[in-house]
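PROTEIN DATA CARD
Card holder: DUF6318 domain-containing protein
Chain length: 179
Origin: Blastococcus saxobsidens
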Amino acid sequence: MGALVLTGCSERQEASTTLPTTEAAPTTEALPTLGPADFPVPEEAREQTPEGAVEFVRYYVALTKHLAVNSRDPEPLLQLSQDCRTCNQIAQALTADLAASYSYREYAYEFDEYGPALVDGETAEVGFAYVQGPITAVDQAGQIVPDRSAATPEELQSGASLLWNEDLQSWVITGLTVG
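Structure generated from the sequence above:
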């Protein structure tokens, strides 16, 4: 009986003409686009990490400029926030600018994070310095609108509270303090 088993294993076998594939099935799907089509939320800002939280706030600040300079509907600011009073005020100001046909000749700012975000599960806190200005808003006649402009740069100690939104696979801002 033992001889049969050994003999069967020692017989010559033809090699397979096909090799197993080494391609792995994709483990993650691409994230759906979030934000305006011409200024989407970058992938690194959609990571549930301290770095991702900082990049999300950096993006949100840049989005505000993008919408203002391009005279665009501020709806993306609202879509990327949740119960954020300051976010709502910014969106209302941009809506008022659109209604008044204001445009921006100049819109400079700097965003400097204080370090990594503090992440605790589904929430994060990001501290940053926001240097605003110069910003020059003009009316239809090209006249400067003083209450929508800032002639000299001003550093404002700022911060943001974030919540991870599983449906969006992104952070959303729940609180924003500028200054």
